[in-house]
Design a protein that fits this description.
Chain lengths: 155, 152
Amino acid sequence: MTKEAIKFMITEVLEGCAPGESGTYFVQGGEALRSTLKNLTAEEASCQIAPNVNSIAAHLIHTNYYLWFSLEYMHGRTPTADWAQSWAKQTVTEEEFQEEQAKLISQVELFCMLLDDKDLGEQENIFGAIANVGHIAYHLGAIRQLFLLVKPQNS
Amino acid sequence: MTSEAIAFLLTEILYGTTTSNEGTTFLEGDQALIATLQSLTPEQASQQPQNLDSIAANLIHLNAYLGYTIATFKQQEPAYDWPGTWAKQIISEDEYNAEIQKLQTQAEQFTNLLNHVPLEQKWPLVETIANLCHLSYHLGAIRQLARIVKHD
């Protein structure tokens, strides 16, 4: 049941309203991660609205890095993290932006597939799985604020 | 195990580190919700950069969402008023401190209720994880707003 609930929430964060459902727990359809990113140009996603504020592109690249790191663990490997580096790139070309979006979708799909093979009775597995959903939700919250600032007509 | 994981992550979102001090899954202490809110003045928390909802409004909305969930967990039927949860944007110092305290109290109530919620059933479990994600979402939003209002 826990796996189903985790997959349900990660789908809501990514896609908004789940297929066959009439509502959401907290993300409206157009406010979900996939459609938010789709409504941005690479130039908008690369915009740093203040010197100490990371761009949307940087949030996306970092989210992908965190997911990759988790997937490595789920595969039984132990990667070395470089979290500072995961924030290094702030600007993306149109092609890079499309690639990062596609990577997000494919990594979330892989995460859901690998989750089915995991024993969530083990502490590390369940903490990691729920933390991943929370981590993506955190960056959706950040990205939505930045989205409204770079596209103020959507406020 | 599921309720333990949820309680652990809730503590991390609010306080950054756990009592066992074993590190965090994605938040450092000063990046967590309570420390972020306490680092702001009520004036900063009441700012609306480019007409966005203020940090205070995000906090009040979070408390309302958590309150509705707690009521549901207690088998009560709360009177939902979602637009009302976003109505107040400006906050006094007393109100701000009271809202931060309310968040901590409600998070504790939520954690205590986890042992009484049928987490073996899909929807109570989804609602519980949704609360965690909702807190996490608004922490992400609040941290961006905090950087902007502090920069100003």
